[in-house]
Amino acid sequence: MTNERKHLPQSPTLTTNKQKMATPTPTNPRIIALFDVDGTLTLPRGEVEPSMMAFMKSLSEKITVGIVGGSDLPKQEEQLGNGIVKVFPYNFSQNGLVAYKDGELLEIQTISKHLGEENVKRLVNWVMKYLADVDIPVKRGTFFEFRSGMFNISPVGRNCSREERNDYEKFDLEHKIRETMVEAMKKEFADLNLTYSIGGQISFDVFPVGWDKTYSLKFLKEGDFDEIHFFGDKTFKGGNDYEIFMSERTIGHTVTSPEDTKEQCTKIFLS
Ligand SMILES: [Mg+2]
Question: Taking 50 as the threshold, does the pLDDT of residue 6 lie above it?
Answer without folding.
Answer: no
